[in-house]
TrEMBL record, chain B:
Protein name per the record: Ni,Fe-hydrogenase III small subunit
PANTHER family referenced in this protein's UniProt entry, alphabetically: FORMATE HYDROGENLYASE SUBUNIT 7-RELATED, HYDROGENASE-4 COMPONENT I
UniProt keyword terms in alphabetical order: 4Fe-4S, Iron, Iron-sulfur, Metal-binding
Cofactor(s) recorded in Swiss-Prot or TrEMBL: [4Fe-4S] cluster
């Protein structure tokens, strides 16, 4: 198994390129390789989308990573759709199917622009398609769910914010007489429990509609996008450095991962040689971000199973990490670490020593707290078999991060598509020998997808992250310069690239397309792990009881802001 | 000594609650921050710079916190901490004029008090004028022994939530000051509101406000809550909590650190004097 390896070795791309050409033949108008690992396949018409997507998804065994729509009418191209499929497990390849929708493509009798839906065969595409309908006004033909997603029912149906002719500052009057049609579950004894958007705790807003029979949840419908802030549109009105600041605030607790993905996208276009030390500092901070967030989630789970003492102990550890964040970066949330072309902070010797000391101390305390938690049958029993995500559901929804790993699907962008310092780190010693590999596979098979397995995956993640931090610090390079300054100068209008990173929630994928003046974006498509993982919660709670919901929710640890954008 | 940073001791001193970490003693007097913490930006008294450097600062500030205005025949520079999200870029281009300090920006009762000016007092913006006037009377009436706080996220990036949650951890342990986070607005004295007030949250926020019994206090948290922050005032946001419901206290920062949020809450209940020099 290839772990990390040489990031510039993309011999697989050639293999896939010829396979695609052979299979799809006339459906393809052009094919080219960009940024090392992106195979761009230009489809001849939009009608070819479904068949081509199914082939790449099923036969080439890829995961749908995101669907990008962009309004390129100003560049004379109409609307473009890009379906990004990612290989996993050691092959660093993205296959991007591109189709064009011309403005006079009025297959619905002149009423709407349309494109063929693939949601019935690739369920994970469903939300992207609804998003495109809201934001661009292009209808997914065949997607059974025609309800609005991002722009709630008070928004008029014919105004689409991500179109270039929409002004970001427009104030659109509200429509008050429409209601959102929730799925009705009927039958004797079934009742509906609406929850939110304002919740009982200190968390972000969202609405949940439970249908229960007695105490058992027989259906859950989530309704999100209450925190929609027009992030992607806003990015188009900023310069590249300002977008960096915005990317840190896509989801505050994922600041390093998201800003790193953004920077990497630009750096890939510019073929910038980011200094080794900068990459290492990014890696250290990214791992620190994982640690403090996992600690917070574990504490939350401990609260939700009713064990406040464990939660307090874990919260102290989280606080200690946040203080370390501040010491390292000047911000308790690690805002300001990344810069385009490098990093904005340096870690001098005294800081490094402090990081090593703190994480080592923390590691000891953490082990103690965790073994205490594992000691309590009341804690373990509440988590065991609660909120199960089956492997089938995880695969269909294309889950990422902890949510995938808890169901036995080993997905980790740090290993599958190595970036920053991860290609020189041996992330997974367990694959070293055939015996280790076998043992590991058995271990993954045993993953039950319940809250307990998410607990275990997180605990293991914290331990790994601490050792990664230490390993990187031991091998820290001594470059003097931490930012390559000319990244922005080397960008060209309408050039584009993917940027990606593994946050504590899973893979985050950012696609940028440079604007005409080269210091702005013509399109910034952000897809965080939360967007992919949110639908899983509707499946996870089935047949659990309502009081289990907070635990299931916390164990998945999803961001609302990162989803709603 | 509000906002002054005590020398940080990494071990020793205050109460040990286990896991070798100290509880914050008096969160107002005893503020911990590392020297490189980006807590607030301040205007230097005498900046001997040509105006171009001011303009560079104005231009680089993505939040629009720095403004140069004509004031008679003179130019005036203002800095709005209600907008600033503490990126530190202005200090990089005009270090003589703007300084990032590790003391956090002090929460205030009137929006215009967050605007610092080098040349006299900044012009008060009309929409903020009505705020804060009756606060004193109001708080006198509601104060029993404890304060019930309902947190409402009106579109935050969740950074502010991370810090509000931290108030409950054993280090800040806000309950010892009689401050409780409650589950329902019907039990609340104070609404602690974060986010730039997204359009999709408007109805929910207004309903929560209406559901809170009188007299009630609204505290806007973070650059977003104070002004819309980096998200501004767009088709999807409304540019700050006070565009939707009346606000009594503004807590600047991005996110404000736990001590600042506590300060804001105490200011809200009139436990500390209004203004510190
Ligand atoms: S630190 Fe504040 S005032 Fe300075 S540039 Fe950043 S947002 Fe503007
Ligand atoms: S003020 Fe800053 S941390 Fe708070 S919600 Fe706004 S962007 Fe996030």
């Amino acid at each position: 198994m290839m772990l990390g390896g040489d990031a510039t070795d993309h011999s697989n791309t050639a293999k896939y390129k010829s396979a695609i050409l052979q299979k799809l033949g006339k459906k393809v108008r052009g094919i080219h390789i960009l940024n090392g690992n992106e195979i761009h396949v230009i489809l001849s018409t939009k009608e070819e989308i479904p068949e081509s997507c199914y082939y790449v998804h099923k036969d080439l065994k890829t995961k749908l990573a995101t669907v990008i729509c962009s309004d390129e009418r100003l560049a004379g191209r109409g609307f473009m759709l890009r379906y990004v499929f990612a290989k996993e497990n050691g092959e660093d390849v993205f296959i991007i199917l591109t189709a064009r929708i011309k403005e006079n493509d009025d297959s619905a009798g002149g009423r709407h622009l349309t494109f063929p839906s693939i949601a019935l065969h690739i369920p994970s595409a469903a939300l992207y398609e609804r998003e495109i309908k809201d934001m661009f006004g292009i209808w997914p033909d065949g997607n059974p769910d025609t309800r609005p997603l991002v722009l709630h029912e008070q928004w008029p149906e014919d105004v689409h914010p991500l179109r270039k002719d929409f002004d970001i500052n427009s104030k659109i009057p509200r429509i008050y007489n429409r209601e959102y049609p929730f799925t009705k579950v009927e039958g004797e004894g079934v009742c509906e429990i609406p929850v939110g958007p304002v919740h009982a705790g200190i968390i972000e807003p969202g609405h949940f509609r439970f249908s229960v029979l007695g105490e058992n949840i027989i259906n859950l419908e989530t309704r999100l996008f209450y925190t929609h802030k027009g992030t992607e549109k806003l990015a188009e009105s900023m310069n590249l450095d300002q977008v960096l600041l915005l990317s840190e605030r896509i989801s505050g607790d994922e600041a390093v991962a998201n800003s790193m993905a953004y920077c990497q996208a630009l750096e890939r276009i510019a073929r910038a040689n980011v200094p080794k030390r900068a990459l290492q500092i990014r890696t250290i901070c990214a791992e620190m971000e994982r640690i403090y967030n996992h600690l917070g989630t574990l504490a939350g789970m401990s609260t939700d199973v009713g064990f406040a003492y464990g939660a307090s102990r874990l919260n102290i550890l989280k606080e200690r990490m946040m203080q370390l964040n501040e010491y390292v970066s000047g911000s308790r949330l690690l805002f300001g670490v990344n810069r385009i072309g490098g990093v904005g902070i340096d870690l001098m010797d005294d800081k490094l020593k402090h990081v090593v000391n703190t994480t080592n101390l923390l590691s000891e305390d953490f082990q103690r707290v965790i073994s205490m938690l594992k000691d309590k049958s009341s804690v373990m029993d509440r988590m065991r078999n609660t909120g199960i995500i089956t492997r089938r559901v995880a695969a269909d929804l294309g889950l990422v991060g902890v949510a995938a790993r808890c169901a036995g699907i080993d997905a980790d962008t740090r290993r599958d598509h190595p970036y920053a310092e991860y290609d020189s780190l041996r992330l997974d010693m367990r694959h070293d020998t055939p015996q280790h590999l076998m043992e590991y596979e058995i271990e993954m098979q045993k993953m039950k997808g319940d809250a307990l397995s998410r607990f275990e995956v997180r605990v293991e993640d914290v331990v790994n992250s601490i050792s990664i931090v230490n390993e990187v610090i031991t091998n820290l390079h001594s470059d003097n310069v931490l930012v390559v300054a000319d990244v922005v100068d080397r960008l060209e209008p309408y050039s584009h690239a993917l940027g990606y990173a593994e946050s504590h929630r899973g893979q985050t994928i950012h696609w940028v397309m440079i604007g005409e003046d080269c210091n702005s974006l013509s399109r910034y498509k952000i897809r965080t792990a939360s967007f992919v993982n949110w639908p899983a919660i509707e499946q996870a709670v089935l047949n659990d009881i309502v009081p289990d919901f907070p635990l299931v929710n916390k164990s998945l640890d999803l961001s609302y802001s990162g989803n709603d954008l | 000594m509000i906002g002054k940073i005590g020398k940080r001791a990494n071990s020793g001193s205050a109460d040990i609650v286990g896991n070798s970490i100290e509880t914050v003693g008096d969160p107002i007097k005893d503020i911990h921050a590392f020297p490189n913490y980006r807590g607030r930006v301040s205007l230097a008294e005498k900046a001997g710079l040509p105006l171009e450097n001011y303009e560079a600062a104005e231009e680089i500030c993505a939040s629009g916190a720095i403004k140069i205005q004509a004031c008679g025949d003179k130019e005036k520079i203002t800095l709005d901490m209600g907008k600033c999200f503490l990126c530190g870029r202005c200090q990089e281009v005009a270090p003589d004029l703007l300084r990032v300090e590790s003391a956090f920006a002090i929460p205030v009762r009137k929006r215009e008090e967050l605007i610092e000016s080098l040349d006299g007092i900044a012009p008060a913006e009309e929409s903020f004028e009505k705020m804060g006037k009756e606060l004193k009377e109001k708080v006198g009436k509601i104060l029993g022994r404890s304060l019930a706080v309902r947190e409402v996220d009106a579109g935050s990036c969740n950074g502010c939530e991370v810090e509000i949650t931290a108030l409950n951890n054993p280090v800040y342990d806000i309950e010892r000051f009689g401050i409780h986070f409650v589950a329902s607005p019907r039990h609340a004295d104070v609404l602690l509101v974060t986010g730039p007030a997204s359009r999709n949250m408007e109805v929910a926020l207004k309903r929560t406000y209406e559901a809170t019994p009188d007299p009630k206090i609204v505290v806007a948290v973070g650059a977003c809550g104070c002004s819309g922050g980096i998200f501004g005032d767009t088709y999807a946001t409304t540019g700050g909590i006070d565009k939707m419901v009346p606000v009594d206290v503004y807590i600047p920062g991005c996110p404000p650190r736990p001590e600042a949020i506590l300060y804001g809450l105490l200011l809200a209940v009139d436990r500390i004097p209004e203004k510190h020099g």
